[in-house]
Amino acid sequence: MGRRRKRKDLILTFLDFLLTLNLLSIPLYIFISFDMQFQSLKNLQAFLTSKILNFFGLNSISEENFVIIGNKVYEISWDSTGWKSLYAFIALIISTPIHHKRKIKPLIIGVLSIFLFNMARIAATIYLSYKEIYSFDLLHFGLWRWGSIGFLIFIWFIFLYTQKNNIGETKNIIGFVYGRRKP
Question: Of 4, 28, 47, 77, which one's alpha carbon is 20 to 30 angstroms from that of 13?
């Protein structure tokens, strides 16, 4: 295969990835525009956070999407659930042009990893701010916002590294019209 053909395939693969990723961003904007939320996810995270904090010695309870420690109340908001990170990761995996069967296991592992990271993030933020070790705003808006983005990119790069020999084996959106790319 010539150098020009490889460059053309690389460009088409990248454009296919970008097109698919942008199409998958549409539901994200719909969720944000209509303020769609799943109360059960917020409640689950508040419950799990309360259990984690109890394990680390704080006497906490959860009521709906609130974690209560003494006279302090912490709300687990919709954005605190990490739903955007989960959605972004799923969109990145789906957009990567490899065979769909190769995406299932990394998708499950990645989603669980991001969910657990987010649980640790919430529990650490509440614990450290309650103990007055660090300011809540510093942890929540400063450190963890960038930490969540960094963790998401790290997990996706691991996926890309493990699938580096398979990238470009299929097409996504363009592939629905033109079919499977020849090896």
Answer: 28
Q: Is residue 11 part of a domain?
A: no
With left for phi above 0 and alpha for psi between -120 and 50, is residue 83 left, alpha or beta?
Answer: alpha
Is the distance from CB of 138 to CB of 92 less than 8 angstroms? no
Evaluate whether residue 100 is within a structural domain.
yes
Residue range of the domain that includes 121: 82-166
Q: What is the pTM of this model?
A: 0.85
CB atoms within 10 A of CB 97: 22
Model confidence over 160-175: pLDDT tens digits? 999 988 877 776 554 4
CB 75 within 8 A of CB 122: no
Residue 77, in any domain of the structure: no
